[in-house]
Write a structure and sequence with these properties.
Oligomer: single chain
Strand content: under 5%
Structural class: mainly alpha
Order of helices and strands: HHHHHHH
Number of strands: 0
Helix content: 55-70%
Shape: elongated
């Protein structure tokens, strides 16, 4: 068993579970696992099968890349727009306007932005 990978998966699972405010028993139930098996997985004492890994990601609403340690998990956000305070007001205005456009109009806006970046 790859202990480093097992530990990474377990740590990511625990962080995602806690972010959702769930207990190990609740997650195990939703995944159709015994709580003992889920506990072993979260402590890095076992590697999940691929189907179990998929269920883990779906249950904890986290990407496989995060669970496997390829990327950092998203930071906890407090309300809509949190974490974007450092963006200038014009970016907020542009984002708000873009939300009001239909998909075709947004694609045109994207093309225009790409032209401006040349």
């Amino acid at each position: 068993m790859n202990e480093k990978l097992a530990t990474a998966i377990g740590s990511a699972a625990r962080a995602a579970r806690e972010r959702l405010g769930l207990t190990q028993v609740e997650v195990a139930g939703r995944m159709d696992l015994s709580p003992i098996v889920y506990n072993r997985l979260e402590r890095g004492r076992m590697l999940p099968s691929v189907p179990t890994l998929v269920r883990l990601c779906e249950t904890l609403k986290v990407s496989p890349e995060v669970v496997l340690g390829s990327v950092e998990p998203p930071t906890r956000r407090k309300g809509r727009g949190a974490g974007r305070e450092d963006a200038p007001p014009s970016v907020h205005l542009l984002t708000g306007l873009a939300r009001k456009l239909d998909e075709e109009q947004r694609q045109v806006l994207i093309l225009m932005a790409k032209v401006l970046l040349r």
